[in-house]
Design brief:
Blueprint lengths: L3 E4 L2 E3 L5 E7 L6 E9 L6 E6 L5 E3 L7 E6 L4 E6 L8 E9 L3 E4 L3 E5 L2
Parallel strand pairs: 2-11
Antiparallel strand pairs: 1-3, 3-8, 4-5, 4-9, 5-6, 7-8, 9-10, 9-11
Length: 116
């Protein structure tokens, strides 16, 4: 089994930046893709970004140009750099990973709040 743990959430002002990290138990080399979802109060869970082992990445339209996903294989981690944050980015952010095209693993989530 794979365990995921997020960190880096917190409170920031609009226009600020935040860097989330997701550390996986064991190697992430067999996890494909890895990525992030988020869910705001009263809203549907939505995909934020994901990254394949090939290096190919995908971003939701609402974060393009502001967020960057990357993999750190040496630390078995995936990060999400969030810039130019907006109040509507406020949500619980969940790390996820897919293994062998079948199993999906989730972290417990980390709260991101963007407010003045």
């Amino acid at each position: 089994q794979v365990q995921l743990m997020e960190s880096g959430g917190g409170l920031v002002h609009p226009g600020g930046s935040l860097r989330l990290s997701c550390v996986a138990s064991g190697s992430i080399s067999n996890l494909n893709p890895v990525g992030w979802y988020r869910q705001a109060p009263g809203k549907e869970r939505e995909l934020v970004a994901y990254s394949y082992l090939t290096g190919q990445t995908h971003y939701a339209n609402f974060v393009k140009g502001r967020f960057t996903i990357s993999r750190d294989n040496a630390k078995d981690a995936v990060t999400l750099q969030m810039n130019s944050l907006k109040p509507e980015d406020t949500a619980v952010y969940y790390c996820y990973a897919k293994e062998r095209g079948i199993h999906i693993y989730w972290g417990p989530g980390t709260q991101v709040t963007v407010s003045a």
